Amino acid sequence: MTGYKEGIREALPIMVGYVPLGLAAGLLLKQAGLSVLQIGLMSMLVFGGSSQFATAALLMNEASFMDILLMIILLNSRQMLFTSSLAKYLKEAPLFKTLLLCQCTTDESYAMNMFQFEKAEKGEGQRSVDNGLWVACLTYTTWCVSTIVGALLGGIIAGPEAVMNYVLTAMFIGLLIPQLKTRLIVMIAGLSGLLALALAPFLPTGVNIMLCTLVSSYLGYWLEKRRMRHLRGKRRNL
Fold this sequence. Notes:
Largest sheet: none
Number of helices: 11
Shape: globular
Strand content: under 5%
Number of strands: 0
Helix content: over 70%
Mean pLDDT: 79
Order of helices and strands: HHHHHHHHHHH
Low-confidence stretches: none
């Protein structure tokens, strides 16, 4: 593949951020009971930071296999929207490159690639599928290696379960805070948390998390759709 210099330069900030998160994910999954091989395969096949952290939480709470599977599918379903929006830039790309890019795409690499593809579309520089592949594959490799190293460390460093639960909670808070960029997201996050607390005495942990995720996701979608319709109406009136 060509374009490796641009790909490395663009991927480097993402890779630096993935290392501590990957180490933490591997460590927590190991403490939750998965083997190093299972953690490595999960990173390579699932490749979803949020779903892997959620899996660790569900395993620590003894959730069923079906609860974990449905949660992973739900959390990773957004990747279909990401890769489908990239499709218009990949029409001339070979099929194997398209498939590889789709497998290795995450929120961060998607944001970087979409930004660069849109710049190229406006005539501000050039962008090829190889540039995007370097970004996606480098971040993918960094995550996989980091989680495996974290799993190996987890076999050496054994933390008390109570402490690991606090670490997991702190990690989710750390993942949530950077996403709180608008009042809508803050409101949805708050409502989701309150709903989870209200349902906790009545539902198993896995079912509770899935239900709250579904409800908050649909509510966010409905409110955003309503906001966009309102904005379009104002533009027509102008």
